Amino acid sequence: MKITNNLQKIFNQTPSSVYLVFAILIFASSNSLTRKIVEIGKDNLIDGRNPISLCNVLFVGNICALGLMLLIFHKHWTLHKLKALTRKDWVSITFTGILSGAIAPALIFTALGQTNVTNIVLIGRIEPIFTLLLSVWLLRSQVNSWTILGSLVSFVGAVTTAFLTNSPQKMTMLGFQLGTGEILVAIAAVIVSISTVVNKLQLRSIPLGIITIYRNVLGTLIFFMLANFLYGAKHFADVLSPFLWQWMLIYAAIIVVTGQLCWLIGVKKATSTELNLASLFNPIIAIFMAYLILGEVPTSAQYWGGSLLLIGVVLSFIGNLYQSKTNQKLSKPILHEAMEMNIGFRGI
After folding, report:
1. Cα three-residue angle 133-136-138, rounded to 5 degrees
2. Residue 347 and residue 108 in contact, taking contact as beta carbons nearer than 8 Å
3. Nearest-CA neighbor of 36 among 124, 107, 117, 123?
4. What is the pLDDT at residue 274?
5. Which of 229, 343, 278, 222 lies closest to 19, judged by CA?
């Protein structure tokens, strides 16, 4: 009992920033760790196949994430709460479940095989500008000029990276040369931004646990069926491999369990400014982790894009500080939105 009380005391006294730092470090490392684990699988082939393929990582990783979500949100799945959902609600969460639970992760994982992690991080920053535009349009959100300017500069940084990158696979679009991986990341970012705004609307009437668990289950099933249709059943031949699950359990323990719990605890105790600052620094830390874990040295295109991204982060942070002065108290809807945007598996 004394040990439990001491742990509870430590938990209550630990600042929210500590939990957020651990969460951001873990999330920012996720793409690099995924690539590293896939490389380990290439050195341990089974009948010429990589047991830790990107598809297997996504499929098994989602199953592990589902276990965590059920542990945290099982109380949301009561008969009373399920009956309260309308047909429109089910259509809405099905739509976002397919987009953010299956299509976006599949695009990101495909892009991991086409381009490097740094490009994925930088180009993925077009998401905030689309989310901002949709939030103003659909949610009537109030944003200040600093936030708008920061998002625009970050967007320019992402576009700069995409067009200046020397990719082995190029596609011509409106006279410009773009790599296939960069295009996939951009499409995924737009999809995630749409899903984020729609989810904010859903959270006004639908419990967070129902949305996240339903999205995970639906996305996993859709992805599994789509991959079987495109690549055949043999594509998941090693999904029960002990070697795969050995690494996925480690992956789930670090990325899914520890990362999500640190984020949820941090969100519960943090202010809106701390949450925004954590989200802003995520891509910068992700680029550093790509260098540290994979040895990815930024190219000139990535230096240009990253510099603009850093300027955008500073401008957005000024906007966040300004906004926090007019909204000192963290409201419950903001808390739920922050949890929704970071719970479950996200490739960006």
Report:
1. 100
2. yes
3. 117
4. 64
5. 278
CA–CA distance, 297 with 287 (Å, rounded to integer)? 9
Please report the beta strands in the chain, taking only residues with DSSP state E, as ranges in sequence order.
170-173, 176-179
SS3 of residue 132 by DSSP: helix
**Residues 19/269, Cβ–Cβ less than 8 Å:** yes
Task: Specify the amino acid at residue 57.
Answer: V
Question: Nearest-5° angle of CA 294, CA 99, CA 217?
Answer: 85
pLDDT at 299: 81
Mean pLDDT score of the chain, rounded to an integer? 77
Which tokens hold the place of 146?
A: 């600093």
Structure tokens at 167: 């990719």
DSSP letters, 256-316, are: IIIHHHHHHHHHHH--HHHHHHHHHHHHHHHHHHHHHHH-----HHHHHHHHHHHHHHHHH
* Residue-wise pLDDT tens digits, 175-198: 445 678 888 888 988 888 888 788
Burial degree of 276 (CB within 10 A; 0-12, 13-18, 19+): buried
Rounded CA-CA distance 343/190 in Å is: 18
Q: What are the structure tokens assigned to 180, written together?
A: 């296939």
Structure tokens at 62: 């989602």
> How many angstroms separate the CA atoms of 251 and 260, rounded?
12
| Residue that is written with structure tokens 């689309």 in the block | 130
- One-letter amino acid identity for 10? I
Q: How far apart are CA 172 and CA 180, in angstroms?
A: 10
Q: Give the amino acid at 291.
A: Y
Reported as type and span, the H/E element at residue 171 is: strand 170-173
